[in-house]
């Protein structure tokens, strides 16, 4: 076999693959584009992202439960029991929430916060309030400090 100059051997993949180390390098080089494609395709989400959008979704679910079987749906049961019961349940959950906050129980506070939000949404459904009404009010307030807002309120002349 005729002797191949060193410079040519360097560019010959077949030769290079036969050498330990060099073969690995070549393999890595060739695999790179495929790896990049795999990285570029995001994995399909198996469950919805845990964001505040859950509040809108939960509202829609609770609305859909209105008038359905109270034996099957807790929301339907609560809604069928009327405004006073709904408000009472919200109040109970709020108290449980503040108890956990004062006790410094972080995990329990998270759970109770979820209870409060769920019961608040049931209260909105009963009262005919749409979440977007509340989001609009929060947006209107955005950027206004509570201190400034309070100072701008008209003073009650009868206040002591
Ligand atoms: N987020 C909640 C949620 N949070 C709390 N709860 C229920 O709220 C109830 C609170 O328990 P309590 O013992 O305090 O209330 P209670 O059983 O009414 O007790 P009483 O005051 O009547 O004695 C429990 O049954 C909880 O399971 C909830 N029930 C439902 N949801 C959501 O609402 C969706 C629809 O639920 P259903 O309407 O049940 O289909 C569900 O898929 C969830 O996403």
TrEMBL record:
Pathway in which this enzyme or protein is active: Amino-acid biosynthesis; L-histidine biosynthesis; L-histidine from 5-phospho-alpha-D-ribose 1-diphosphate: step 2/9
Cross-referenced Pfam families: PRA-PH (PF01503)
E.C. no: 3.6.1.31
Protein's GO biological process: L-histidine biosynthetic process
Region Disordered, residue ranges: 1-25
Subcellular localization(s) per the UniProt record: Cytoplasm
Main subcellular location of this protein, as a coarse class: cytoplasm
Catalytic activity: 1-(5-phospho-beta-D-ribosyl)-ATP + H2O = 1-(5-phospho-beta-D-ribosyl)-5'-AMP + diphosphate + H(+)
Keyword field: Amino-acid biosynthesis, ATP-binding, Cytoplasm, Histidine biosynthesis, Hydrolase, Nucleotide-binding
Top-rank taxon: Bacteria
Keyword Cytoplasm set for record: yes
GO molecular function, one term: phosphoribosyl-ATP diphosphatase activity
Record-level GO cellular component terms: cytoplasm
UniProt record similarity statement: Belongs to the PRA-PH family.
Protein name per Swiss-Prot or TrEMBL: Phosphoribosyl-ATP pyrophosphatase
Organism encoding this protein: Gluconacetobacter asukensis
């Amino acid at each position: 076999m005729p002797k191949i100059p060193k410079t040519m051997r360097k560019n010959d993949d077949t030769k290079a693959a036969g050498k330990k180390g060099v073969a690995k390098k070549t393999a890595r080089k060739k695999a790179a584009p495929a790896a990049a494609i795999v990285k570029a395709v995001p994995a399909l989400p198996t469950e919805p992202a845990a964001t505040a959008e859950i509040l809108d979704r939960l509202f829609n679910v609770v609305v859909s439960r209105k008038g359905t079987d109270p034996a099957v749906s807790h929301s339907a049961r609560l809604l069928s029991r009327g405004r006073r019961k709904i408000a009472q349940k919200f109040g109970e959950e709020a108290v449980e929430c503040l108890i956990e906050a004062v006790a410094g129980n972080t995990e329990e506070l998270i759970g109770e916060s979820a209870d409060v939000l769920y019961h608040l949404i049931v209260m909105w459904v009963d009262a005919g309030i749409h979440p977007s009404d509340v989001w609009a009010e929060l947006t209107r307030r955005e950027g206004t400090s509570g201190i400034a807002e309070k100072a701008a309120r008209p003073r009650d002349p009868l206040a002591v």
